[in-house]
Write a structure and sequence with these properties.
Blueprint lengths: L7 E6 L5 E5 L2 H7 L2 H12 L13 E4 L14 E6 L6 E6 L3 H8 L3 E5 L6 E6 L2 E6 L8 H12 L4 E4 L2 H4 L7 E3 L3 E3 L4 H7 L2 E7 L9 H17 L3 H7 L4 H9 L20 H7 L1 E5 L9 E6 L4 E4 L3 H7 L8 H14 L3 H16 L5 H4 L11 H13 L4 H4 L3 H8 L7 E2 L2 E2 L9 H9 L12 H5 L5 H18 L4 H6 L3 H12 L5 H22 L13 H4 L14 H15 L10 H6 L6 H9 L2
Parallel strand pairs: 1-6, 7-12
Antiparallel strand pairs: 1-2, 3-4, 3-6, 4-5, 7-8, 9-10, 9-12, 10-11, 13-14, 14-15, 16-17
Bound molecules: iron/sulfur cluster.
């Protein structure tokens, strides 16, 4: 290949200790582009349909894209893919920071980790030197303190992906942490590492990345930075990052999750808005590789004496308003505790919100919840901190909570207000009156997350073609993951997707058109869907459902013109969505015709086999 890719995939088997490399062919790169698309293809081909997500047959694939580690704006994204321990289906999550560039500099586009180690280990990659090392010194270490210790031991120029005690204890929603506070948080990808006894991946690289046409790439990059800096929202993004959204979500969209999504408006939301946080606790801004937006806010809480990256919007929503907590220092502290334990802040806040509601409803007894939790209520920081620790160490009620909200609700009989899709806890957008956003959650490739499509503003602005919009977003947004870049310069500052396509061509020497690029994005979206068909016998449109609370329970803060989207209306929209996609309206899976059109004919045999088991 002429540039952009290293052309090498590293494979490490933790059971046999075998370490090999293989070529990434140009044909495969052109078929899926890279990062999330490539990792999905490897996971699809290699993880057996009956693999236990907690067992050694599951794999975790860490992958970069052709743009990762280059001078393209915000090109520091790395994707992890595996079979999700939360859903038994497709799992994927990405992280910013500096991992991607380091892996490329070490000479690899992706790392495939398979098998499981008998003892806690970590993977050390330094260019061609790759070793599986003993991690006993890091056993039980928190993500932040563990990364610090590992950097002290290995050098500050080593980039590290690490898991915390939660993953070591196999909590279903453990995250992978990097750069002292950035996470691949969703779908339990950290749990896969924990189940493999893999504490960390440490990378140091000294090679460069080939560029086919440097002059052309320079011009494109200059344009991207110019467009970003001239955008009227650029300064606000630098100042506040995603916390900008707290006030807008609370007052305009009415989507700030409040008390387990009972409402989208938090009466004390102004105490936790961006300006308050900036004034009270933010010490400096923090960016991923090559990003002028620097959306990361590094904060210090005097009352708790901790430093933390964040909290960002999702964490303020899930560990703040969703738990009735209105003190920004307390939220920063809970953010720190959750990060250190290695739990996903979104899932943890969702599960705890569910428990508080269930307890107040009398569905959990004082005995079950434990003496120290007696009187649990909204707005109790100390109790939330205790619960986070119980979850990560699977103590007392934490043993149940560690399984995720779906399982918790099945045990307690509280399914009506279990806020999840396919077993993954819903992220921080209350959406009961937002049809497109509901559809986006219902059909998201990993379950209840907004990464694939975020259509809440489109809904609020009265957008009409909802199914069409969700499909468009489900191609383009994950497309940025495929390329290995952050999507925020496009979402927030309007950097044109064409410039990313031009950068890809300048790097690789290809002459890909936008239509061709979108066809690849669609192929990757269909492959993600096929993963569910292969791994989940009986997969059907019922899996694309959203929580009952969002169909049947009205709240007092509604605008008169915005009604609840009923189950009937949602089903109609879902059928339209399937038809537009070329998916079967009963199974919710791609038709064989659609698969063949996209060059995914090899998937058909797996789907037939899975149907036989129905
Ligand atoms: Fe990282 Fe934020 Fe920049 Fe995206 S916008 S690359 S998340 S600093």
């Amino acid at each position: 290949m002429k540039g952009g890719y290293t052309g090498k995939i590293l494979r490490v088997n933790l059971s046999t200790k075998e370490i090999t490399t293989e070529d990434l062919t140009e044909k495969m790169a052109k078929f899926h582009i890279g990062a999330r698309g490539l990792a999905t293809r490897i996971a699809y081909d290699e993880i057996p349909c009956d693999a236990d997500p907690s067992g050694p047959e599951n794999k975790i694939i860490m992958a970069t894209g052709p743009l990762s580690g280059t001078r393209v704006i915000a090109s520091g994204k790395t994707t992890f893919v595996g079979k999700s321990p939360q859903t038994n289906g497709y799992g994927s999550s990405n992280v910013g920071g500096h991992l991607a560039e380091e892996l490329k500099f070490a000479g690899y586009d992706a790392v495939v980790v398979e098998g499981a180690s008998k003892k806690l280990c970590y993977l050390y990659i330094e260019d061609d030197k790759v070793e599986i090392r003993d991690a006993k010194d890091y056993k039980g270490a928190g993500c932040i303190s563990g990364e610090r210790k590992m950097k002290d031991d290995l050098g500050d120029d080593v980039q590290i992906a690490i898991v915390g005690p939660a993953a070591e204890n196999s909590v279903a929603y453990s995250c992978i942490s990097h750069d002292f506070g950035r996470q691949a948080g969703r779908a339990g990808l950290g749990t896969i590492m924990g189940n493999k006894n893999l504490k960390a991946i440490a990378i140091k690289g000294s090679k460069g990345i080939e560029v086919h046409d440097k002059k052309r790439l320079d011009k494109i990059v200059r344009q991207m930075f110019k467009d970003a800096k001239e955008h009227p929202d650029f300064k606000a993004w630098q100042l506040y990052g995603t916390t900008n959204l707290v006030s807008y979500s609370n007052h305009n969209l009415k989507s700030l999750p409040t008390r387990n999504f009972q409402s989208g408006h938090f009466e004390n939301g102004d105490n936790i808005r961006a300006e308050v946080m900036r004034r009270k606790i933010v010490r400096h801004d923090k960016a991923c590789g090559v990003c002028p937006m620097a959306c990361g806010k590094y904060s210090y809480s005097k009352s708790h004496n901790i430093c933390v990256e964040g909290p960002e919007y999702e964490t303020i929503g899930m560990l703040g308003s969703n738990l009735g907590i209105d003190n920004i220092e307390d939220i920063a502290y809970l953010n720190y505790v959750t990060d250190e334990l290695g739990l996903d802040t979104i899932s943890a806040g969702n599960v705890i919100g569910h428990l508080i509601e269930a307890y107040k409803e009398g569905k959990v007894t004082d005995k079950e919840i434990g003496k120290d939790m007696k009187g649990l209520d909204w707005g109790k920081t100390k109790e939330v901190e205790l619960l986070l620790n119980k979850i990560a160490h699977k103590r007392g009620i934490g043993k149940l909570l560690a399984k995720g909200v779906k399982r918790v609700s099945e045990v307690l009989g509280t399914q009506e207000y279990a806020m999840h899709v396919k077993g993954v806890e819903i992220s921080a957008y209350e959406s009961r009156r937002r049809p497109a956003n509901k559809l986006a959650y219902g059909t998201a490739s990993i379950g209840g997350h907004h990464n694939d499509a975020w259509a809440i503003v489109f809904d609020a602005q009265g957008g009409k073609d909802k199914a069409e919009k969700v499909i468009e977003l489900q191609h383009l947004r994950p497309g940025f993951d495929d390329l290995g870049v952050c999507r925020l310069p496009w979402v927030e500052l309007g950097i044109k997707p064409e410039l990313y396509k031009d950068a890809l061509n300048a790097l690789t020497g290809w002459s890909m058109t936008m239509d061709e690029m979108f066809e690849i994005f669609e192929r990757n979206a269909n492959l993600r869907r096929a993963f569910w068909g292969k791994h989940v016998p009986g997969f059907s449109r019922n899996y694309d459902n959203v929580p009952k609370r969002w169909y049947e329970e009205e709240v007092g803060d509604k605008k008169p013109e915005e009604d609840l989207v009923t189950k009937k209306e949602y089903d109609k929209l879902l059928t339209k969505y399937y038809r537009l996609r070329g998916w079967n309206i009963h199974s919710g899976l791609p038709t064989y015709k659609k698969l063949r059109e996209l060059g995914l004919g090899f998937v058909i045999k797996d789907l037939k086999k899975s149907r036989e088991k129905d």
